[in-house]
Write a structure and sequence with these properties.
By secondary structure, this protein is mainly alpha-helical. Helix content is 69%, strand content 0%. The protein has one domain. The chain has six helices and no strands. The longest helix has 14 residues.
Length: 101
């Protein structure tokens, strides 16, 4: 993930930027290209970047990117101890289950 992407995701997390402005300024429109989020998750997983996982989880929830290819990446993170998103991952799976995905 680039420094600029991290900064935008951080602003989104802190609500210092609107979701619409985020989508305009981010590298790609993740609401239409969730595969890019999967790529970033895979990179965060490989590099064990806990902050990147946190930022990406915010984007996943904010833009409701609960798609199968992202879920597979989240499954990999589920048992890792180097990040702090376990409760959010559990919430994500509960939401996916309740939506029948």
């Amino acid at each position: 993930m680039t420094k600029g992407e991290r900064e935008l995701l951080h602003k989104l997390m802190k609500r210092a930027i609107t979701p619409d402005l985020f989508l305009k300024e981010f590298t790609v429109d993740i609401s239409k290209n969730p595969a890019y989020v999967r790529e970033l998750l895979e990179k965060a997983y490989i590099e064990q970047e806990a902050d990147d996982v946190e930022y990406l989880m915010i984007a996943i929830f904010r833009f409701e990117l609960f798609l199968e290819d992202i879920t597979e990446s989240i499954c990999k993170l589920m048992n890792e101890t180097w990040h702090f998103q376990h409760e959010n991952i559990a919430s994500m799976f509960q939401k996916v289950k309740s939506q029948g995905q």
